[in-house]
Write a structure and sequence with these properties.
Number of strands of chain A: 22
Protein name (chain B): NAD(P)-dependent oxidoreductase
Oligomer: heterodimer
Shape of chain A: globular
CATH topology of the largest domain in chain B: FAD/NAD(P)-binding domain
Helix content of chain A: 25-40%
Largest sheet of chain A: 8 strands, parallel, barrel
Bound molecules: flavin-adenine dinucleotide, flavin mononucleotide, iron/sulfur cluster
CATH superfamily of the largest domain in chain B: FAD/NAD(P)-binding domain
InterPro entries (chain B): DPD_II (IPR028261), FAD/NAD-bd_sf (IPR036188), FAD/NAD-binding_dom (IPR023753), Helical_ferredxn (IPR009051)
Shape of chain B: globular
Number of helices of chain A: 13
CATH architecture of the largest domain in chain A: Alpha-Beta Barrel
Number of domains of chain A: 2
Radius of gyration of chain B: 22 Å
Structural class of chain A: alpha/beta
Structural class of chain B: alpha/beta
Strand order of the largest sheet of chain B: 4-3-2-7-21
Number of helices of chain B: 17
CATH class of the largest domain in chain A: Alpha Beta
Organism (chain B): Pseudooceanicola sediminis
CATH superfamily of the largest domain in chain A: Aldolase class I
Number of domains of chain B: 3
Strand order of the largest sheet of chain A: 3-4-7-8-9-10-15-16
Largest sheet of chain B: 5 strands, parallel
Largest interface: A-B, 18 and 19 residues
Distance between the termini of chain B: 66 Å
CATH architecture of the largest domain in chain B: 3-Layer(bba) Sandwich
Strand content of chain A: 15-25%
Pfam families (chain B): Fer4_20 (PF14691), Pyr_redox_2 (PF07992)
Number of strands of chain B: 21
GO molecular function (chain B): iron-sulfur cluster binding; oxidoreductase activity
CATH topology of the largest domain in chain A: TIM Barrel
CATH class of the largest domain in chain B: Alpha Beta
Chain lengths: 434, 444
C-alpha cells in the first residue's frame, strides 16, 4: 500500500491531512481525539495577544447553503479567533505535542501589526515545542475591523513586514495564511515569500452573506435582528481555492514554493486535486465540522487506493503534476474539436440536456417524438453544458474528433495544434504576421 | 415437455427451463454504478451509527458507503471485509429489514432506509471481480488449529486464524465446504454459484487446508483433534431436524425442508428436480418460507405454509412473509398439523386450529384438511454430533466470552453455540471473535 507519510517544510506527518485552524482545533480535548481518529496534523485555532481574550457572539455564528437532500455545501461563520486564555492554550499545545511527536502541530497566530506584539508572543509559542506557526492574515470579519486578519492580508507590504518579524523572532517554519478577499492572490503570496515565509496556506474564508431572513429583513446568521458578513467555506469554495492555489503554483515568482491548500476539501479526491495543483499537503475544516473527525478515514483509504492504482509510492510523486497543464486561455488548442455523445443505454430521457442546449446554447440536441435525444454534430460547439446538467454520470461524453476528420459544424478538417496567438481573427496575431 | 403445474404427484420439469431461469434470478439484483451512486448519496454518515450497532459483525457502514460515494468501492469492500469476511454472502442473505436497515435513520425520516445490503454487495462484488484477496497473512506462528464445520462460523474463524499466522485444518462432514451457504440459503439469494466462489476466494489467504467428508463422531474424535492441534473450534451448525410427531408422518412425500433445499441447491438442472403439485410446508421460519417460495418457483400449483401460532410470532420477517405472498404462497397461521393422510403416499394434511390460552398453544378442536402430495417439515433444526463432555443447554453448546466451551482448548460458534440469532452474519461474528480469543490464548 502507498505510503501517505508526507514531509512539509521538514515536518513529517503520517498523512497529508491536517485540520485547519478553526473550532475543530480549538482545544486539547478536540485535538487529541482528532489525532486518535487519524489526522496527520493540526493547525491550532488562532491564538491572540496575551491578556483578555476576544469574545464571540452568543447567538448563531453559522449560516449555510444546502444542496439537494440538505447536503451542506457552503458554511459561513462570524466566529473570531480563540476566545480562550493564551496560556491555557499554550499549556495544552505543549502537552499534546509531547504526547503526539509523530503528528504535525502548527500554531496559528494573530496579534496586532506591531513588532512588539509579535516579539512578545513568538517565544511563548516556540517554548511549546510545536512544529511551526501559521500567520492568520485571513479572517475576514470582526478581527479585520480591528486591523488584523484580512486587513493585513490585503496589504502586501504588511505581509512582508510581519513575516520578517516572525522569521526574526521564531526559529521554526513560518506559514502565511492568505485571504481570498483580494483580486490577485499572487500579490500577497509574493509578499509572503519576500518576507522569507517558508510556505503559504490558502484559502481562509470568503466574505459572504448566505441568506436573508425575509420576515426580519436581516442577514443570517441573525443576532438580535442584525447580521454581518461572515467567512464562507466548505465544498462551495473549492473551485475558488483551487484556482488561487494554481495561480501561485504557476507564478514564475513563486513556482515550486511550498503551499498548504485549504478550501472545501471533503474527500480524498479533493485533496489529490489540490496536491496535483502544487499543494504539498492539505488542511480541512468544514468537512470535519460536518461529518466529524472520522471523515479522515475515507480520505486516507481513498488517497492510498488511488496512489496504488496510479503507481505513486509517496505523495511527493504527484504533487504539482497538474501545474504545467494550467495555462492561459490564449494557449489553448483551438483546433481541438470534440462532440457530445449521448449513451442511449444510460439515458433516462429526462430532457434536461435538450432544455439547456435548445434554450441557452446552440440548439444542437434533437428530441424525437418518443423522447430519444441525440446530438446534431453540425450544430454542437462542444460547450459541455449538456454533460453538466445531465443527472446520469457518464451518460454524455465528449468525444474527440481525430486529426483529419471533418467537423460538420464548420465544414473544416481537424488540423494540428494552433492557438489564439496565431489565429487570423486575433488583431495582435495579424500584426505579428505582417 | 410433458409436465405442467397441474400434473398430479411429485414431478420434475413443471416449468420450461427459461421460466425457471427467470424465477431463480437474484432476489436483490446488483446495483449498477449509477444506482450505487444515488443510493450511497443518501447516507448521512451518522455518528455512532445505529446501522453499525445493529450489524452483528459491526461493519463500519457509514464509512464504507462514503467510500463508495467517493468512487473507491474497493476500499469500501476492505472496510466491510475487515469486520466480516463473508460480507459478500451477508450482503445477499442478511435480513437487513430486521438488522441494519431497520434502524437506518432514513427509515425513521422517510420510511425508506439507505440500501445498505445492496451497497455492501456492490462493494464486495467490485473487489471480488478483481479476484484479489485483500488481506495478507501475518508471520507464521507454527500453531495448528482444527476447525470443525466449514459453514460461515468455521470459515470466518479459519480466515481470521490464518490471517494471524496460524495453520488451520478445516474438517467438514459434507462433500463441499460452505455449510448452509452452499446447502441451505435460498437459490435466488446466492446465484451463480456464489457460495463456492466465495469460499475459494476466502481460502486465497493461504494457510487453510479443507478436508471434506470428515465427520466429527464418525471417524474424527474431539480427543484426537485436541491431541493433534493447539486448539479446536466447533462450527458444526444444527445438523439434525425436529421430527414431526403426527400420525402418517412417515408417508411418502413427507420430507425435511432442509433436505429438499439442499437438493435444490445442488441440482445441476432445476428442471430435473421433482416438486409436488400441491405443497404444504409445516413451520414458520426462514426455512419454511424458503421451501415454500422455491416450490412455487419450481412450478407447484399451490403452496401453503401452515404455522401453529400467529403471524407476529413467525420466525420469518415481514419482508420474507411478503415475499412469499408475492410469489403466490398462502400463509395460514394458528393451525397445527394433526395427521398426514394418504394411501402410502401423502395426499392430505389435517390441520387443527389453535389458540393461545394463558400463553399456551391449545387446539380448538376444529380441523381442516388440505390436499397435499408433498409435505415439507420445517419445524426446526437440532444440534447433532456434538462431542461428549461439552456442556449443552437448550440444545446448544454453552459458550462464554469469545466462544469458549466448558472444555479447555475447545471453542464453538455459529448455530451450534448458545446465544445470538441463527443467522449467517451472527455465525460469522462468532467465528471471528472465537478466532481472536483462540489467538489470544495461543499467543499468551
Ligand atoms: C433453509 C435455510 C435458509 C436460511 N436462510 C438464511 C438467510 O436467508 N439469511 C441468514 O442470515 N440466515 C439464513 N439461515 C441461517 C444460516 O444459514 C445459519 O445461521 C448459518 O449457516 C449458520 O452457520 P454455521 O457455520 O453455524 O452452520 P452451518 O452453516 O450449518 O455449517 C455447519 C457445517 O458443519 C458441518 N458439520 C455438521 N456436523 C458436522 C460433524 N459432526 N462433523 C464435521 N462437520 C460437521 C456441516 O456439514 C456444515 O458444513 C438459513 C438457514 C436455513 C436452514
Ligand atoms: C467557524 C470557523 C472558524 C474559523 N476560524 C479560523 C481561525 O481562527 N483561524 C484561521 O486561520 N482560520 C479560521 N477559519 C478558516 C478555516 O481554517 C479554513 O481556512 C476555511 O474554513 C476553509 O476551509 P474549509 O472549506 O475546509 O472549511 C475558520 C473557519 C470556520 C468555519
Ligand atoms: S451544535 Fe452544539 S453548541 Fe452548537 S447550537 Fe447545537 S447544541 Fe448548541
Ligand atoms: S440530460 Fe442525460 S439523461 Fe436526460 S435526456 Fe439528456 S442525455 Fe438523457
Ligand atoms: S443509519 Fe442510515 S444514514 Fe445513518 S449511517 Fe447508517 S446507513 Fe447511513
Amino acid at each position: 500500500m502507498a505510503d501517505l507519510t508526507t514531509t512539509f517544510l521538514g515536518i513529517t506527518s503520517p498523512n497529508p491531512f491536517w485540520l485547519a485552524s478553526a473550532p475543530p482545533t480549538d482545544k486539547e480535548y478536540n485535538v487529541r481525539r482528532a489525532f486518535e481518529a487519524g489526522w496527520g496534523g493540526v493547525v491550532w485555532k488562532t491564538l491572540g495577544m496575551e491578556g483578555q481574550p476576544v469574545v464571540n457572539v452568543n447567538g448563531p455564528r453559522y449560516g449555510a447553503i444546502f444542496g439537494a437532500d440538505r447536503r451542506l455545501l457552503g458554511l459561513n461563520n462570524i466566529e473570531l479567533i480563540t476566545d480562550r486564555d493564551l496560556h491555557r492554550n499554550l499549556e495544552e499545545i505543549t502537552r499534546v505535542k509531547k504526547d503526539y511527536p509523530d503528528r504535525a502541530l502548527i500554531v496559528s497566530i494573530m496579534v496586532p501589526c506591531e513588532e512588539e506584539a509579535w516579539k512578545a508572543i513568538l517565544p511563548l509559542v516556540e517554548a511549546t515545542g510545536a512544529d511551526g506557526i501559521e500567520l492568520n492574515f485571513g479572517c475576514p470579519h470582526g478581527m479585520a475591523e480591528r486591523g488584523m486578519g484580512s486587513a493585513v492580508g490585503q496589504v502586501p507590504e504588511y505581509i512582508t513586514m510581519v513575516t520578517e518579524w516572525c522569521k526574526m523572532y521564531y526559529s521554526k517554519p513560518v506559514i502565511v495564511k492568505l485571504t481570498p478577499n483580494i483580486t490577485d492572490i499572487r500579490q500577497p503570496a509574493r509578499a509572503a515569500f519576500k518576507g522569507n515565509a517558508d510556505a503559504v496556506s490558502l484559502i481562509n474564508t470568503i466574505n459572504s452573506i448566505t441568506s436573508v431572513n425575509l420576515d426580519a429583513m436581516s442577514p443570517e446568521p441573525m443576532i438580535d435582528g442584525k447580521g454581518t458578513h461572515g467567512g464562507y467555506c466548505g465544498p462551495a469554495v473549492k473551485p475558488i481555492a483551487m484556482n488561487m492555489c494554481a495561480e501561485i503554483a504557476r507564478d514564475p515568482e513563486t513556482n515550486g514554493k511550498p503551499i498548504s491548500a485549504i478550501g472545501g476539501i471533503t474527500t480524498w479526491r479533493d485533496a489529490a486535486e489540490f496536491m496535483a495543483l502544487g499543494a504539498g499537503n492539505v488542511q480541512v475544516c468544514t468537512a470535519a465540522m460536518t461529518y466529524g473527525f472520522k471523515v479522515v478515514q475515507e480520505m486516507i483509504s481513498g488517497l492510498s487506493q488511488w496512489m496504488d492504482e496510479k503507481g505513486y509510492e509517496k505523495t511527493s510523486d504527484f504533487v504539482g503534476m497538474a501545474v504545467p497543464n494550467v495555462t492561459d486561455w490564449q494557449y489553448l488548442n483551438l483546433n481541438y474539436v470534440t462532440k457530445a455523445r449521448i449513451d442511449q443505454d444510460a439515458c433516462i430521457s429526462c430532457g434536461r440536456c435538450y432544455a439547456a442546449c435548445e434554450d441557452t446554447s446552440h440548439q444542437a440536441i434533437d428530441m424525437s417524438i418518443d423522447r430519444v435525444f441525440t446530438v446534431k454534430d453540425d450544430e454542437c460547439v462542444a460547450c459541455n453544458l449538456c454533460v453538466n446538467v445531465c443527472p446520469v454520470e457518464g451518460c454524455i461524453e465528449m468525444v474527440e474528433l481525430e486529426m483529419g476528420a471533418l467537423d460538420e459544424r464548420t465544414g473544416e478538417i481537424v488540423k494540428p495544434y494552433a492557438n489564439w496567438t496565431s489565429h487570423p481573427n486575433n488583431p495582435g496575431a495579424i500584426k505579428a504576421a505582417e | 415437455m410433458s409436465n405442467t403445474t397441474m400434473t398430479p404427484g411429485i414431478q420434475p420439469g413443471r416449468l420450461p427451463g427459461e421460466n425457471l431461469d427467470v424465477n431463480f434470478q437474484d432476489l436483490h439484483p446488483p446495483l449498477t454504478p449509477h444506482e450505487a451512486h444515488v443510493a450511497a448519496d443518501r447516507c448521512y454518515f451518522c455518528h455512532d451509527a445505529p446501522c453499525m450497532t445493529a450489524c452483528p459483525t459491526s461493519i463500519d457502514i457509514p464509512l464504507f458507503i462514503r467510500q463508495i460515494m467517493t468512487g473507491t468501492p474497493e476500499a469500501a469492500a476492505r472496510t466491510i471485509l475487515e469486520q466480516n469476511i463473508l460480507g459478500g454472502m451477508c450482503a445477499r442473505v442478511c435480513p437487513t429489514e430486521t438488522l441494519c436497515e431497520e434502524v437506518c435513520v432514513r427509515e425513521t425520516a422517510e420510511g425508506q432506509p439507505v440500501e445498505i445490503g445492496r451497497l455492501q454487495r456492490y462493494a464486495t462484488d467490485t473487489l471480488m471481480a478483481r479476484n484479489s484477496h485483500p488481506f495478507a497473512r501475518a508471520a507464521e506462528t507454527g500453531k495448528r488449529v482444527a476447525v470443525v464445520g466449514a459453514g460461515p462460523a468455521g470459515l470466518a474463524c479459519a480466515h481470521r486464524l490464518a490471517m494471524k499466522g496460524h495453520d488451520v485444518v478445516m474438517y467438514d462432514a459434507r462433500a463441499k465446504a460452505g455449510g448452509l451457504n452452499e446447502f441451505g440459503i435460498a437459490a435466488y439469494k446466492s446465484t451463480e454459484d456464489f457460495a463456492a466462489r466465495e469460499v475459494a476466494w476466502l481460502l486465497g489467504i493461504g494457510g487453510i487446508t479443507v478436508e471434506t467428508g470428515r465427520s466429527l463422531g464418525a471417524g474424527l474424535s474431539l480427543e484426537q483433534l485436541k491431541q493433534d492441534h493447539d486448539a479446536v473450534f466447533l462450527g458444526i451448525g444444527l445438523a439434525g431436524v425436529n421430527a414431526l410427531s403426527v400420525a402418517g408422518a412417515e408417508k411418502d412425500g413427507v420430507v425435511d425442508a432442509v433436505s429438499f433445499i439442499a437438493e435444490l441447491r445442488q441440482a445441476e438442472d432445476l428442471a430435473t428436480l421433482p416438486v409436488g403439485r400441491r405443497v404444504v410446508v409445516i413451520g414458520g421460519g426462514m426455512t419454511a418460507i424458503d421451501a415454500a417460495v422455491q416450490s412455487r418457483l419450481l412450478g407447484a400449483e399451490s403452496v401453503t405454509v401452515a404455522y401453529r401460532r400467529g403471524a407476529d410470532r413467525m420466525g420469518a420477517s415481514q419482508f420474507e412473509q411478503d415475499l412469499a405472498a408475492s410469489k403466490g404462497v398462502r400463509i395460514m397461521t394458528n393451525v397445527m398439523p394433526v395427521a398426514v393422510h394418504g394411501n402410502g403416499a401423502a395426499s392430505e394434511v389435517e390441520l387443527e386450529y389453535t389458540q393461545d390460552v394463558d400463553g399456551r398453544l391449545t387446539g380448538t378442536g376444529e380441523t381442516v384438511r388440505l390436499v397435499a402430495d408433498q409435505v415439507f417439515k420445517a419445524i426446526g433444526q437440532t444440534l447433532q454430533g456434538a462431542p461428549e463432555g461439552l456442556e449443552i443447554t437448550r440444545g446448544k453448546i454453552v459458550v462464554t466470552g469469545g466462544g469458549r466451551t466448558s472444555v479447555k482448548g475447545v471453542w464453538a460458534g455459529g448455530d451450534c453455540a448458545l446465544g445470538g440469532e441463527d443467522l449467517t452474519v451472527t455465525a460469522v461474528a462468532e467465528g471471528r471473535d472465537a478466532a481472536e480469543d483462540i489467538h489470544k490464548a495461543l499467543m499468551g
